[in-house]
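Hi there, hope your week has been kind to you so far. Please have a think about how the structure follows from the sequence. I've dropped the whole record in just underneath, so have a look:

_____
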Amino acid sequence: MTSTVLAPAQLIGAKADPMLKHRNIGIMAHIDAGKTTFTERVLFLSEKIHKTGEVHDGAATMDFLEEERKRGITIQSAATQVDWKTFTVNIIDTPGHVDFTAEVERSLRVLDGAIAVFDGVAGVEAQSETVWRQANKYKVPRLCFINKMDRVGANFEDAVQSIRDRLSARPAPIQIPIGAEAAFKGVIDVVRMKAIHFIDGAEDRKYDEFEIPAELLPMAQKARHDLCEIAAEFDDTLLDLFVEDGEITEELLKAALRKGTLAIGCTPVLCGSALKHKGVRFALDAVLDYLPSPLEMPPVEGDVPRTERRTARKPLDTEPVCLMAFKTIAESTGDLTFVRVYSGVLQKGAKLINPRTGKSERIGRLVRVHANKQEAIDEVRAGDIGACVGLKDTVTGDTLCDEDNPIALSKIVFPDAVISMSLEPKKSGDRDKLGEVIRKILREDPTFRAQT
């Protein structure tokens, strides 16, 4: 039996094109499936934080608003960037409540992949279906993580079947659990055909790996046969080997599953317990193995302003700069606008045009955001996500682009609000303050409407 230790990310040097080793992903799920806890464990494993905060204690890193900490829920999407092995991963943690579905919509519009987290007891729930439809709308490849496998009533097979039945998806389990509920102690890696035991107290940094025990071998062999059957649809070589009962290597199986995942023909499924530090690191490994880099995404298309022509931008630094603003946080020091750069290199001091308004915007400060903290940077490359401080006339869904090579990307379409109410200040002297707060909400929330 071998004991494997997670190598610190900074000790493994990146050698390839940085954008090939780059991922932009979102974490999405129904309420209380464990999204934010999952993200907290990712931050801990990648050494972004050195102590985990719990949602139920109001101490989660990504839930930093006062209302989020008080209620123990995620209200707005929060962004961060982590290093895992030789890769860089941008992560957006999204809300699960239907009231804040616009946060999920605008995040999925600019992401290349997603992890859908499911409760191992409840399986697919109402909001799981909503976020899944949103991911389908934007053709976002995704992984599934069956969480809370240590809870009473957890059932991996039922959860996977609910993904088939309620989401009309094609789950491809690349892991199966060893035990469930209190007896959940590890997983079988179906791709590599190895058994993995979690080590209590090791916080997912260490695990024991060994050959699959004889009593679990028939279950593991069936799971691998089913997985190969799914993967065979995406690779002719693998199909021939499958039909002839030939040996299918780990590399060939991974490559075929990756093709299927990027084509949204199948969805790899993993399992664990984020709260108990079990299995999250393998989900991170799967992000690198199966979700796309920005360079693997198709060129982004848009309209040439004031013409009927369409044009496209490849995700390359050499293309004219083109980006989309997908979230605004109104601040007294200048609005913080999150952007996804689709082509070119966004540099500090650049002058870009907004095709919607026809006005120019000067890029003053550029920052990298980690929850509620900011780090100043000089540029954001094609395929990356960053934030601009102090944009004047840019709102969520706007395109900013090179003045000599304009393009207007398709806007983000949000659902209409279903609740309306009237507000009036208690004192006439507060009218200006109320107006200021409403204008701030208007800048931040694309579904909010106000009239006087």
